[in-house]
Amino acid sequence: MGLTQQDLGEALGLEGRIAQSRISRYEIELHTPDLKTAYELAEVLGVSLSALVAESDRLGQIIELIRKLSDDEQEALAKRLRQLTKPKRPRRPKTEG
């Protein structure tokens, strides 16, 4: 997106050096934004709150892609994911006889 920490902080209504400092603290996890601020961050960055707080960038990207699917497509994907993550039953060895 090309925003600096300063730009992002100012978009949240922070001023001066506080803007850059606060965003820096969020990025290095010295400070955690409250829910309202996290929602505003997501809005400024053009992502969902779910994607913003995802465990990894990859998971965040996947969440954003899923959000673009229709309800039916999301349900089909959920069904397929349940199939893929279903525990596999061990195969019984073939008996010779």
Describe the structure.
With 97 residues, the chain is an all-alpha fold. It is built from six helices and no strands. Helix 1 packs across helix 2 (16-27). The longest helix has 15 residues, at 71-85. The protein starts with a helix and ends in a 12-residue tail after the last helix.
Shape: elongated
The mean pLDDT is 91
* Secondary-structure element order, N to C: HHHHHH
Assign the CATH class of the largest domain.
Mainly Alpha
CATH topology of the largest domain: 434 Repressor (Amino-terminal Domain)
Which homologous superfamily in CATH is the superfamily of the largest domain? lambda repressor-like DNA-binding domains
Computed structural class? mainly alpha
Helix proportion of residues, in percent? Answer: 55-70%
Largest sheet: none
Named at the architecture level, the CATH assignment of the largest domain is Orthogonal Bundle
User: What is the count of distinct domains?
Assistant: 2
